[in-house]
Amino acid sequence: YGVTSYDIGTGFGHFAIATEDVYKLVEIVRAHGGNVTREPGPVKGGTSVIAFVKDPDGYAFEL
Length: 63
Fold this sequence. Notes:
Blueprint: E1 15-16, H1 22-31, E2 35-42, E3 49-54, E4 60-62
Parallel strand pairs: 1-4
Antiparallel strand pairs: 2-3, 3-4
InterPro entries: Glyas_Bleomycin-R_OHBP_Dase, Glyas_Fos-R_dOase_dom, Glyoxalase_1_CS, VOC_core
Protein name: Lactoylglutathione lyase-like protein
Pfam families: Glyoxalase
């Protein structure tokens, strides 16, 4: 409604979404034109697999 620009600010780092298959979800995001900023893989020093993506507004999501 009349807003021409929007600043997402620095009020948080990222959202996190749990999924059974990070690799599959990243492919779905990519197939829909999403921006994958960290490819799926284990966290440093651990075995949990994560990835990061950004939505069209620039919000970061950890999968």
